[in-house]
Specification:
Structural class of chain A: alpha+beta
CATH superfamily of the largest domain in chain A: Nucleoside Triphosphate Pyrophosphohydrolase
Largest sheet of chain A: 7 strands, mixed
Number of strands of chain A: 9
Shape of chain A: globular
Number of helices of chain A: 5
Oligomer: homodimer
Largest interface: A-B, 36 and 36 residues
Helix content of chain A: 25-40%
CATH topology of the largest domain in chain A: Nucleoside Triphosphate Pyrophosphohydrolase
Number of domains of chain A: 2
Strand content of chain A: 25-35%
Distance between the termini of chain A: 52 Å
Chain lengths: ~230, ~230
DNA sequence: TCAAAAGTGTTCTTATTACACCCATGG
DNA sequence: CCATGGGTGTAATAAGAACACTTTTGA
């Protein structure tokens, strides 16, 4: 059998654009680099893929090392492999994004980074490497995905109000939505369970709480339903 | 400066799903493997990425070696990197698809393959490696892309009839479209130039020939227009 | 004169948009 | 009693779907 040794080999990393939402703003979790190149610059959390690891597994591992979270929504976006993208040699990176509930964990130093912080997507500096470009590609993918799949709920607490849901869509789509039309559309899909609970401790009329009905969604999909916002 | 040598390195390939359209059928250009593994199986044309090559450049090179074509529509879809996807070792592949005018070149043996052949997308055998999965992902991407960008024209001759265009959409979307509604929609976009020429030598009423007006499309896009079918 | 595909409008239904006021709560 | 966001319906418009017959050509 022939061998692969004659061919050029490159280091492979996964980079993960971790999105969170805090009722105002869509945010990304970035780490501050502690070494060259790009020392002190903010960067996407990422790490090298190991020899026996699937790409998806590597992306899950990076996420788990930083946040402790497993079983979160994770989607591959694309590979970035410009010959000169890494100053120390040839590194091809596979970009993923994940959607997490922003309060599901406490931001603290992790094995892969001393400094970890949520950054508003609307106020980003220049990041290390080609990470601005990667982030843009992932954000564009999220924008598209959120309109055709009910992935937005991954970013909200289990119990949420319709206004929170609307603000989430507005933050992702970077547009304003009409309150009545938005509610009409969401409610008409029959995918929300009214929990018969109310917001508490707010200085205004409390809102109803809902949760997303995943079983019903899967049932509807099996019958040909297609989520669309 | 630290070094990358401590990290695992993998061979990188690009695989290219080359689509063509012949008035009936959407087709893919496959090569028959001349060596192990998967000897004699049909496979996607692909090859190893070299040390100083961008991924996109490698995909262009593979396409050019097989077809002689350059400057064609080429889009990266995603990376495939399951640990066990290649029997001889770790090979991560970046999948692309390209859209070509099927008569733009003659199918013949090339440096990377003895046997090269167009295969109907609707009648595909089992391919080498994970190439069925790659092909599916690229086809799904094309289906989505063709509805929101005027890329379908890449698969048609420069001068085409509305019926050819409709059949192309039907082949890609795997559905039937209403002739009158389709024409109404296409014509109303004002993106086709009526060439004032007719089909010749057909045993029925000859159809008008059109070409796609790329300048107008770009002008419209600059004004906020969004292609949609 | 026949076969085959080209070409052409109208009606109905559904989805989208625009828009303003009263309600419940905490401070 | 005030400020704040919660909650609700209708009318107008636009987009999409359904549908059948006449025309032109070559054989």
């Amino acid at each position: 059998m022939p061998s692969l040794d004659q061919f050029f080999k490159a280091a492979i990393t996964v980079d993960n654009v971790i999105f969170g939402f805090d009722d105002d703003d869509l945010k990304v979790l970035l780490i501050q680099r502690g070494e060259e190149p790009y020392i002190n610059k903010w960067a996407l959390p990422g790490y090298f893929v190991t020899e026996d690891e699937d790409l998806d597994t590597a992306a899950e591992r990076v996420l788990a090392e930083l946040t402790g979270l497993t079983n979160v929504y994770l989607e591959q976006v694309k590979a970035f492999g410009a010959a000169k993208r890494h100053p120390l040699g040839r590194v091809i990176t596979i970009a993923y994004y994940s959607l997490i509930k922003i309060n599901a964990f406490e931001v603290k130093p992790a094995s892969i980074a001393e400094k970890v912080m949520w950054h508003s997507i609307s106020k980003l500096d220049e990041l290390a490497f080609d990470h601005n470009e990667i982030l843009e590609a992932c954000f564009a993918r999220l924008k598209r995905r959120v309109r055709g799949r009910p992935v937005g709920f991954e970013l909200l607490p289990r119990k949420f109000t319709l206004t929170q849901l609307q603000h989430l869509y507005e933050a992702i789509l970077e547009t304003e939505l009409d309150k009545r039309n938005f509610r009409k559309k969401i409610i008409s899909m029959n995918l929300l369970i009214d929990l018969n609970e109310m917001q508490e401790g707010v200085a205004h009329r409390p809102a109803k709480l809902y949760k997303f009905d995943r079983e019903k969604y899967e049932e509807f999909v099996a019958k040909g339903f297609s989520f669309e916002i």
